[in-house]
Amino acid sequence: MDTDKKPAIVIGAGPAGLCAAIELKKAGAPVILMDENSKPGGQLFKQIHKFFGSREHKAGVRGFEIGKELLAESLSLGIDVRLKTEVVGIEKGLKVWAVEDRSRSYTVDAATLILATGATENALSFPGWTLPGVMTAGCAQTLINVHRVLPGKKVLMIGSGNVGVIVAYQLMQAGAEVVAVIEALPRLGGYGVHTAKVRRAGVPFRCSTTIVRAEGKESVERAIIAKIDAGFKPIPGTEEVLEVDAICLAVGLTPSIELSCLAGCEQIYVPELGGNMPLHDQYMRSSVESVYTVGDIAGVEEASTAMEEGRLAGIHAAWSMGCMDEATMKRKTEETMGRLLSLRQGVFGQKRFAAKKRIVEQGAPR
Amino acid sequence: MNADESLKTTGAPSLDELRSAGMLPSVADFGNKGCVCIECIEEIPCDPCETSCPQGALMVGTPITNLPVIDRGKCTLCGLCIPACPGLAITIKSIQGDKAKIRFPWEYLPLPVAGQEAEMVDRSGQVLCTGRILAVGNPSRNNRTAVVTAEFPGEFVEEVISIRRDHGRI
């Protein structure tokens, strides 16, 4: 380190962690950014579509290009980025235990900890779900957009939220046929503009429909789907066979809260944001002093909201470490909160806004 | 029945849903000099259409979840909003005589080629008629969203939204 001050440690180099580290470093705070992967960027480098939002949220820019910009900024600022570095423990006094390259273990004492560990995709179990060819939508997206490998030629997408419809579209861009998008609820979940562009490519959407089983000798050869009743039970006689060689699961995400539990952060259950997550206040502070929690771990939303949450925490942490004066902190916080608020409006944003408000009300310092 | 029943169950808006959202231009609009068609009937936080318009003809305003409103008097049909829309929800359509024209966004390979025949599709992907590709523009400012111009029989002007994807030959 270039200073004998204890550093801020940011865990997770996705959009939230990168933005938190950038704000800290810009303020002159010593910062270490750790990520278990060999490349930073989290899920951003898989996102080949143009983002929504406003100019200040980088709307119209494709996700991977936002990743490149954040990376270039963090490199030009000289942030200490430690890749292939897994954090396996957090002890009292914010002692962070890291394992580098699965071979070397060390501890660092942090002044501040920012947890940006993201979320994990949910699975769905049904007979045949262990057959090769059944995968999460995020897995298919990594295969096509990072590794340039098509996981199947005829794909069934399960789940019509934004992840499901965006990945369905990208599978077609990669050359696959999407046989159907099915949804258990009576209404589609994703943005209408996303479903409309998938629909105009001829893909049928089926609401109130579930997968009954997947069949195939060595890998998926077909999927059996059926209509479901109000109690989500398949209705006998409505089964239908779809010839597919891949089945993608886009059935939600769950915050990756393990490290926040180790750190002792109090949790709250918020089903509309993905399940259990650390309580936090409006500055993203958890119940544990000097531990912040940002991005999907603090409630599953989007990359654009994750970036703003990361900035909020980075700004506040820089101030609490004595690297930013109070007036600057207040001004920057206000600007960031304004941008965040604009992303949580409208029919889709309101639910997330209300859920976040609940978290912040309970998470305010007692 | 909800005002967005078709959009939220079939994936695509019906003509009625577009009409009641004020997003289905009249036949007169198509016939005059042509018009921008925006099919954005849900409040999502998004406004690149507004910032892309050099004439200030497209308004979202604050909050950014407002639906876009177009001032047809100011619009010059330059088409910059077509590739700017992250939702690929903007086209420009016109009618001249018995022929209609559409300019639409396209992000699949292979790119269509000017002069080639194309199967024109409606919002559910059904092929309605045969058309012809007139031009394909893909300058770097589009950031990889090509804008394709196609011509087809005028009677289908309300329904046509794109061309069939040639997914057999990538």
What does this structure look like?
The complex is a heterodimer of chains A (366) and B (170). Chain A contains 9 helices and 20 strands. With 366 residues, chain A is an alpha/beta fold. Chain A has 2 domains: 8-120 and 253-363, 3-Layer(bba) Sandwich (FAD/NAD(P)-binding domain); 123-249, FAD/NAD(P)-binding domain. In chain A, the strands form 6 sheets. A 5-stranded parallel β-sheet of chain A has the order 3-2-1-7-20, covered by helices on one side. In chain A, a hairpin with a 3-residue loop joins strand 5 and strand 6 (104-109). The radius of gyration of chain A is 21 Å and the shape is elongated. Chain B has a 7-stranded antiparallel β-sheet. Chain B has a two-stranded antiparallel ribbon with strand order 2-3. In chain B, strand 4 (90-96) and strand 5 (99-106) form a beta hairpin.
Major β-sheet annotation of chain B: 7 strands, antiparallel
* Net shape of chain B: globular
Distance between the termini of chain B: 41 Å
Percent strand of chain B: 25-35%
Largest sheet of chain A: 5 strands, parallel
The CATH homologous superfamily of the largest domain in chain A is called FAD/NAD(P)-binding domain
Total helical elements of chain B: 5
Oligomer: heterodimer
Strand content of chain A: 15-25%
Number of strands of chain B: 9
DSSP helix fraction of chain A? 25-40%
